[in-house]
Amino acid sequence: MAKEKAVIRTDLTRFQWTLLEIRKHKVAYLMIAPFFILFTLFTVIPVVLSLLLSFTNFNMLEFPSFVFLDNYIRLFLDDDVFILAIKNTLKFAAVTGPGSYLLSLLFAWFINELRPKIRSIVTLIFYAPSISGNVYLIWTYFFSSDSYGLVNAWGMELGLLDEPVLWFQDTKYIFTLCCLVALWTSLGTSFLTNIAGFQTVDTALYEAGAVDGVKNRWQELYYITLPMMRPQMMLGAILSITGAFGFGAIISALVGFPSPNYAAHTIMHHLEDYGNQRYEMGYASAIATLLFLMMIGCNLLVNRILRKIGT
Amino acid sequence: MLENARNKVKAAYRKHQTNRVQFKRSVNRSAGGDIGIYILLFIFGFFMFLPMVYSIVQSLKPLDEIFVFPPRFFVINPTLDNFRDLFRTMSESWVPFSRYVFNTIFISVVGTMGNVLLSSYAAYALAKIPFPGRNFLFRAVQYSLMFNATVTAISNFIIMSALGWVDTYLAVIVPAFCTSFGLYLMKQFMETSVRDDVLESARLEGASENKIFWKIAMPMVKPAWATLILFAFKDLWASGANLFIYSEQLKTLNYAISQLVTAGIQRTGVSAASTVFMMVVPILVFIISQNNVIQTMSSAGMKD
Asked: Which residues from B are below 8 Å from A43, CB to CB?
């Protein structure tokens, strides 16, 4: 111990110092090894691999053949469905991402005003849809296409509808309904993060704020609470955005795959189509790579904006 | 040898527990605003809850009430027939029902345990041992929160084939061991709630890092365990038709149930019963762990 302390940082080159530190903390590398080996295997390598494969033709049977940018050129110039998928994905993400984020922030704020006992119950009510597996299928009963569906039956009884509407088949309604269901299931982890964020704010600050002239709960929210819970808000934003690109399974379950007239065909579906059904792995990898860039891009952009608002 | 350190931990933990944020807010609150918030929460809460209630109601309806016209929201003669039918039809299937239950429980329990263990070890090292490269590794984990599993699905399929794990439990369980979000939460929580001076004094007494991890760090982060258990469990419990699993004997409960549901309209009641069955378990886990989860999330913010 004493010997190690005698070594001074400036005696050594940066490289030697690092080596010394590595040797000193050998056990740390053992501790992180299991996690990071698997992380490399199932997260890092797949991202790199799909980037590499996106420049090839690959059908899982023969060795991939290099085709340079062909897949990307085909995607943008020769695949109308893909262009539609990009549009749908962006439209869907633009509604559900900010939508779920603002809703979770708003409800978390409201819930924070309740007493602890009621707070737990209300939290459970809002959070439950997001952890209940495929409970969202119940919406197909609400919006069932025949007159046994509750919405059709009620609508006709009240005279709002003349005949049963084919809710999940009619391209007019598909987008709105999918957004509605997605938002319903979206108050998940980012919602809990925001609830926790509100609770981290030191109550003494509110009293101090009141003395300094904060007059109502809106001012309190704007001047004290939100700046104090910025770290939670940043995490919540990342979770909401990433989630907004992950509703493919819900859409397939509600409107079928492929959706009528590709009305709800997203990049996630396009990927599934080429990857799991046609086994065009190179082409699918190009789609995956673009999806990856879109998600990272959106996240970094929003991250930068949120950072500016706080300061 | 560690007695001293352990007592310090206990004292710190007790203090931490009693210091949990108390409800004490009266400044700047108008009665009108309070009532407005209650009304809004009630309306939205009602719409959030309605589909959940309808699922439960549907599962309790006898067959003739499901197909009554005009459709009714509530049930008149509630019955558990649908649940009985669910278990009966499932046990008549080629693979016994108990096998699906076993698969789901096995995958969920082993996957969750591995997840907590691996994340905690890595989180402890990242949070409390100043080894070179830790910032880089944590940055990589943070970036991986920014995309979801859709992106890696194709390549993962290729990797699973190369490993020869296709059609084994390994293909489902092992990837669940290393969720970036689990590591992220655990690391942030360890950073704020495991005190450095306690670790330092244990190190001076000559305890190994492994011993410190088990005897000091882990007992202090119980809320984070609970949270990781919830998040890992709810995902694994819902894992259904997995791309990597072909054998019927290895399929999960959720998969078996989804097969049942597609069988047709006469199974409407049974499918509602299965939905209720699948949703009750994660909700119970959340009810048990709720306080711990909120406590964990409060340390989970993204610092710049």
From this structure: 144, 152, 178, 180
Contact predicate A163/A252, CB 8 Å? no
CB of B273 within 8 A of CB of B225? no
CA angle B43-B49-B52, nearest 5°? Answer: 160
Q: Where are the domains of chain A?
A: 1-53, 74-310
Lowest mean pLDDT among A167-176, B139-148, B176-185: A167-176
Mean pLDDT of B62-85: 83
**B296–A196 CB contact, under 8 Å:** yes
Question: Is B153 close to A220, i.e. CB distance below 8 A?
Answer: no
**Tokens read off for A36:** 């990071």
ipTM, interface predicted TM-score of the complex: 0.89
- Cβ–Cβ contacts within 10 Å for residue B30, how many? 11
Using a CB-CB cut-off of 8 Å, the residues of chain B touching A32 are 121-122, 125-126, 137
Q: Give pLDDT < 50 ranges for chain A.
A: 1-3
What mean pLDDT comes out for the span B54-65? 87
Which one of B154, B208, B287 would you mutate to disrupt binding with A, by most A Cβ within 10 Å of its Cβ?
B154
Q: For residue B178, what is the domain's CATH number?
A: 1.10.3720.10
**Amino acid letter, A227:** P
Q: Which residue(s) pair with A56 in the sheet?
A: A66
Q: Number of structural domains, chain B?
A: 1
Structural domain A74-310, CATH architecture: Orthogonal Bundle (1.10)
